[in-house]
Amino acid sequence: MEPAARPAVVIDNGTGYSKLGFSGNSEPSFTIPTVVAVNESFLDQSETCSSANWIAQYNAGVMADLDFFIGDEALSHFRSSGLYSLKKPIHHGQVDDWDTMERYWQQCIFNYLRCNPEEHYFLLTDSPVSTPESRECTGEIMFETFNVPGLYISVQSVLSLSAGYAFLKSLSDENSDSMSDMTGVVVDIGDGAPHVVPVVNGYVIGSSIKSFPFSGSDVTQFVLQLLQERGELIPPEDSLDIARKVKEMYCYTSSDIVKEFKKHDKNPDKYVKQWSSIKPKTGVPYTIDIGYERFLGPEIFFHPEIYSADFSTPLPELIDSCVQSAPIDTRRALYKNIVLSGGTTMFKDFHKRLQNDIKKIVDDRVAATNARHHVEVKPVEVNVVTHPIQSYAVWFGGSVAASNPEFYESCHTKEEYEEHGASICRTSTVFKGMY
Fold first, then answer.
1. Quick one: which of 122, 130, 50, 119 has its CA closest to 90?
2. Hey, what domains does the chain have and what are their CATH numbers?
3. Share of the chain above pLDDT 90, in %
4. Is residue 235 within 8 Å of 279, Cβ to Cβ?
5. pLDDT tens digits along 89-141
6. Contact criterion met (CB below 8 Å) for 229 and 356
7. What is the pLDDT of residue 433?
8. Residue 212: phi, psi to the nearest 5?
9. So what's the pLDDT on residue 54?
10. Which residues contact 390 (CB under 8 A, 6 or more apart)?
11. pLDDT (tens digit, 9 = 90+) per residue, 11-24?
12. Three-state SS string across the chain, please?
């Protein structure tokens, strides 16, 4: 069977988690942490062996290449054994350790997806601020190491927008042109490197991209900090994992932080939750109370100064600034389609708070313009799009794109790579089938 007749492999590598699966599916087959556990003892042995004992040196090097784990298995081996160290190939949304990234892809393809890479086209995702050189490295590994027949590297923000449209189409009987107009602002907040990215007709406006310094991992750290400051006794070896679970299970976005404090103080029994577990080292059970942390965690996106004095621009203002820096004839369309992506945008009522705050900023500007120039400017529609697949929107967008026949025509092929080199991977065309 020809590779183009098989479903494409879709891999979305994020700072915290990676999503793996095949095109045409509605959700990824696997969602695993983007970490690798390597056995340092073999690496040390390889380095300390004398050059004369080349056989021992070679064997140690081979074992170092073989003895590693990824995802949850990596975390498990790291916790249970002192032989393994953890490596994260991606920081702030960009690959900075290509050897580890290659190992990670190897396990993803052979141990998780269990497919022959020579028989499938591949769609990989990339950060909107990634460099052309980074895409070249990706192409080299895919074509040289895994010998893939075809590769498409897509910007994550475009796929998020595509996922939003695909989801809306599934709920709508209409097939209007506006549904396929790939214009909007993507607010992508995962475990690392949140970005606000304007997309017009499927193309990213690079000069208008805005970065927000705090991500889901910062919410986790802030929740942990608040619990510790309040005197909750959390086992140090389990602290980050507990804070992450508290964040995912109990945190929500308040509409007014002052009113929320008053509600908690007035009726603590209703709002305070309890977390019970067992200390991993001693086996002793313990319980902690979760109070203000429930709404203060997500509040760093609206009042970032409560977490760090180094940054004070709220996320709604950053989104407004992003739109205002885009071409003037695209701004109304951008405000009308603000799409959320990433697991950190899944907090309860997050989209409502974001929409209300952006709407207030925009309405105040319109009112000021009307008063200053004595004109009647048409109100600006602000719409924040939310859907159940936000946590894996990028992957789903890739699945939709790669299931279209035009995808295979838009891929860079092995033959093109051999003829022109890795530079062909610097750009990928946007095709109609993406939306």
1. 130
2. 37-87 (no CATH), 159-213+312-390 (3.30.420.40), 216-301 (3.90.640.10)
3. 70
4. yes
5. 999 889 999 999 999 999 999 999 999 999 999 999 999 989 999 999 999 99
6. no
7. 53
8. -110, 135
9. 43
10. 340, 341, 342, 343, 345, 346
11. 999 999 999 999 99
12. CCHHHCCCEEEEECCCEEEEEECCCCCCCEEEECCEEEEHHHHHHHHHCCCCCHHHHHHHHHHHHHCEEEHHHHHHHHHHCCCEEEECCEECCEECCHHHHHHHHHHHHHHHCCCCHHHCCEEEEECCCCCHHHHHHHHHHHHHHCCCCEEEEEEHHHHHHHHHHHHHHHHCCCCCHHHHCCCEEEEECCCCCCEEEEEECCEECHHHCEECCCCHHHHHHHHHHHHHHCCCCCCHHHHHHHHHHHHHHHCECCCCHHHHHHHHHHCHHHHCEEEEEECCCCCCEEEEEECCHHHHCHHHHCCHHHCCCCCCCCHHHHHHHHHHCCCHHHHHHHHHCEEEECHHHHCECHHHHHHHHHHHHHHHHHHHHHHHHCCCCCCCCCCEECCCCHHHHHHHHHHHHHCCHHHHHHCEEHHHHHHHCHHHHHCCCCCHHHC
Asked whether the predicted pLDDT for residue 175 surpasses 80, the reply is no
Main-chain phi, psi angles of 268, to 5 degrees: -65, -35
Q: Structure pTM?
A: 0.88
Dihedral-angle region of residue 323 (phi above 0 means left; psi in -120 to 50 means alpha; beta otherwise): alpha
Q: Which of 386, 158, 144 has the alpha carbon at shortest distance from 136? A: 144
Tokens of 289: 């109370």
In this structure, what token pair is assigned to residue 36? 């690798």
| pLDDT exceeds cutoff 80 at 269 | yes
CA dist 46 → 55, 57, 60, 83, 85 (Å): 10, 5, 5, 15, 16
Mean pLDDT throughout 352-363?
A: 97
